[in-house]
Amino acid sequence: MSDRTFDPPGRTRVYVARDEQFLGSIALADAPRPEAREVVAALRGQGLRVALLTGDRRATGLAIASMVGIEAADVYAEVLPADKAATVAALQRAGPVAMVGDGVNDAPALVQADVGVAIGSGTDVAVDAADVTLLRSDLRGLLDALAIGRATVRTIRRNLFWASAYNLVLIPIAAGALYPLSSLPGWLRALDPALAAGAMALSSVTVVVSSLALRRVVADR
């Protein structure tokens, strides 16, 4: 009766007794969220490695992983709460790691990860430990957060480029670098203060317009 071959895949069997008398057993399971497989496929389609970190038995972890499309080699099962952060640290040797969790046991791993993501419906400890909190209990919010984060980084780099370009070009001109070139118009050889102010304003407008484009990314999500 206690043979684990009777355990359905993906379930953990709990045995019940009273006064040292065996009464029966109950098979418990955590069903994956309906959107989990879609999210895993989308992340892997972006070239990201997706792993499952769980304290359940390996057979249970493998069953859940197969349901959502995670490779068996990326299943870390029977991990104690105290060891989750160490597992994340080991994975970080290969590159940045994002951790998604919602329980008290996930908090140390969320802190250890480069980016900790908590589900809004999770425990307060997990939410406090995370860098990002998904307000909805929908894993597709992770894809939204990733898209917004990448768009933000692109915008920062673009703004730095334009700011640097303006400074590299116009500061030497304002300092008189073109003054010896008599063939150029006088307003360009000795930069008029009004033109310098206009160039500064144009630089600011470029950065602001570029940043406002992020609103379109958020709206699309």
Structure description:
By secondary structure, this protein is of the alpha/beta class. Helix 6 runs antiparallel to helix 8. Its main location: membrane. One of its GO terms (cellular component) is membrane.
Could you name the key traits of this structure?
221 residues; HAD_sf; ATPase_P-typ_cyto_dom_N; 7 strands; 2 domains; 3-stranded parallel β-sheet; alpha/beta; 50% helix; 14% strand
Largest sheet: 3 strands, parallel
Provide the succession of SSEs. Answer: EEHEHEHEHEHEHHH
Q: What is the CA-based Rg, rounded?
A: 28 Å
Oligomerization status of the protein chains: single chain
Quick summary of this structure?
With 221 residues, the protein is α/β, with parallel strands linked by helices. 50% of the residues lie in helices and 14% in strands.
Please specify the SSE layout and strand pairing.
Blueprint: E1 12-18, E2 21-28, H1 36-45, E3 52-53, H2 58-68, E4 75-76, H3 81-91, E5 98-101, H4 107-112, E6 115-119, H5 124-129, E7 132-134, H6 140-174, H7 186-189, H8 193-220
Parallel strand pairs: 3-4, 5-6, 6-7
Antiparallel strand pairs: 1-2
Helix pairs in contact: 6-8
Subcellular location: Membrane
InterPro entries: ATPase_P-typ_cyto_dom_N, HAD-like_sf, HAD_sf, P_typ_ATPase
GO biological process, one term: copper ion homeostasis
